[in-house]
Amino acid sequence: MAEAWGVSYATVSRTLNGRSGVDPKTREKVQRVADRLGYSPNLHARSLKTNQTGIIGLILPDISNPFFADIASAVNKVIYAQGYNSILCTTGWDVEIEEKQLSVLLDHRVDGIIFKPSPELTERYANLPIAKVMISNAQDRRFNFVEIDNREGGRIAADHLSDCGYQAPAFIGGDEDSRSNRDRLRGFRERLKERRIELSDKTVRFGGFSIESGYQSVSTLLDQSDRPDCFFCGNDLIALGVLQFLSENRYAVPNAAGVVGFDDVYFSSLPQIQLTTIRQPRHEIGAYAAQALIAALENDDPRPTTHITLQPQLIARNTTIRQSSKQSQETP
Amino acid sequence: MAEAWGVSYATVSRTLNGRSGVDPKTREKVQRVADRLGYSPNLHARSLKTNQTGIIGLILPDISNPFFADIASAVNKVIYAQGYNSILCTTGWDVEIEEKQLSVLLDHRVDGIIFKPSPELTERYANLPIAKVMISNAQDRRFNFVEIDNREGGRIAADHLSDCGYQAPAFIGGDEDSRSNRDRLRGFRERLKERRIELSDKTVRFGGFSIESGYQSVSTLLDQSDRPDCFFCGNDLIALGVLQFLSENRYAVPNAAGVVGFDDVYFSSLPQIQLTTIRQPRHEIGAYAAQALIAALENDDPRPTTHITLQPQLIARNTTIRQSSKQSQETP
DNA sequence: ATGAAAGCGCTAACAC
DNA sequence: GTGTTAGCGCTTTCAT
């Protein structure tokens, strides 16, 4: 701000930051000049001095995936309200890009980060001397985290498919390295076992978290001799791919084949889709994560304090056989 | 970087930025120390000096909308590759928030911005002394812009619905203030007129760009005495809302009612949806915008040079009556 | 090839 | 209530 005006820089700073100790008249005068000049404070200079940037870093795999888009959206809503902004980094599920992006965020001296890590990078994140919140995963109490009880989600799916009377379940996952996916499979398998249904390795497939991947996997599974009669999918995109293949190949859903997704992306509820799925409260994930980060930012004790495990929920729709009984239906 | 090591800051700077004029031995030594210390350059300090931040601002209405999510995704992909990062700001279609976010970006001294403006703020953007690319809209040659020929999109829809034999078209738009929406309506109406079909004001409705809005609007339209037999919707979300209502109320699509969307969001192609729509090349929009911005950044002449108008395309699927003839079908 | 030093725009003592 | 000033971590002349 041009100091061509008759006050010192200190006074300007005090005024513009609403600090006390400025004569109301001076304050008003400065404010007017600032407005007239369209003054915009240089946040970099401020950051240099204060070691605060008002920016939080968000590392997510893929924002074209509505699941992450909604999380990002919820995070932003919360942090905007607190005067923060975010730099969103997407990794495309690529570890190297993720590492690179992380460095960039650090170079930008973000106040904190919210991230969905690839497993390989967990240690790297753990050692970061910065406020952070991890989304999903690992029950690693070195972090603040917000996660979904994926194992329970798997159990819920197993119960439901079994209740529906399906006999030959299959699991179609995304990335095999994904911890959340493994947990879903684990819960699925263990609950099936309790119900005396075996989930053989031949009916477990991994691909990616995409429509195409689901389409591919189900095509392979139905080529085998022991055909599954139902599919628990790692996410809704995969399930949509499965449904697409089933529809194209004239498999009757839900009677000839049941499909359960994971996430409850918003279009899963459309009348034309009506996908039975395990809902993750995406908005809550993002909102809680943001709140946790802001709490960490305002807390000088660096030890993690937030460990939130959110419960998934069965949303029974039309891609599995309707049960008359006690299930939770979409419209109770 | 602690200067506890026997070289001057200048040498460190030269080394780390790959400037010439450093003895290879010194260079290596410095590099090693930097690596060992996990040195992370303070980008704010650098920015203060260089007036460059390597950050570009992205202002979009709503990232939960897959249309904008895909644009953001494409933008990021391109700018990452050039060593830039982005701050993504979402406005929730709220002008005040948009203005606020814009100020924040300016305070952060972003190198440039890519934005989808609300009409009220266009002047504000125009006066910004910063590299910028506008997405969609206004044919305003004061800007670099990447836009869709919305009017042509409306004409295409009119041609198609008319070819299908529908007689009583309706238009269900999003925000009435949206220029792109008005252009679609304009093209729609003018082409209908050429074909001797009148689009009365009673069959034109606006709401928002959401499923709920489409659902509401169609319900009102079908309550009227002159019932439309087909709907051209401002975007695919609206169309999905329309389809939902139609499905719940047992209107047979496409025979009793035709529906055309706009955007071709990826789930519109699902077997269960098969929405006829006017495709916008979302990825191209984002990619071109990013390229244009980078070009502007590297060009010291501030005058806008990029004016790209992308053509929408009819994707005929199952929510309109199939034509045997010359239409462009999804799978030719 | 390297160092010294100024200065980017701001904040926060500290003095008056 | 206001001004002076040091310094945040860098880049970049200008000397040497």
Write a brief structural summary:
Two copies of one chain form a homodimer. Chain A is of the alpha/beta class and 332 residues long.
Would you give an account of this structure?
2 copies of one chain form a homodimer. Chain A has helices spanning 9-16, 24-37, 43-50, 66-81, 95-107, 122-126, 150-163, 179-194, 211-223, 236-248, 282-298; strands spanning 55-60, 85-90, 112-115, 131-135, 144-148, 169-173, 204-206, 230-233, 258-263, 276-279, 307-310, 313-315. The first copy, chain A, has 332 residues and is of the alpha/beta class. Chain A has 3 domains: 2-41, lambda repressor-like DNA-binding domains (434 Repressor (Amino-terminal Domain), Orthogonal Bundle), CATH 1.10.260; 53-148 and 281-311, Rossmann fold (3-Layer(aba) Sandwich); 150-280 and 314-330, Rossmann fold (3-Layer(aba) Sandwich), CATH 3.40.50. Chain A has a 6-stranded parallel sheet, sandwiched between helices. Chain A has a 6-stranded mixed sheet with strand order 7-6-8-9-10-12, sandwiched between helices. In chain A, β1, α4 (66-81) and β2 (85-90) form a beta-alpha-beta unit. In chain A, α4 packs parallel to α11. The longest helix of chain A is centred in the last third of the chain and has 17 residues, at 282-298. Chain A is elongated. The relative contact order of chain A is 0.12. The mean pLDDT of chain A is 91. The structure holds a DNA duplex (16 and 16 nucleotides).
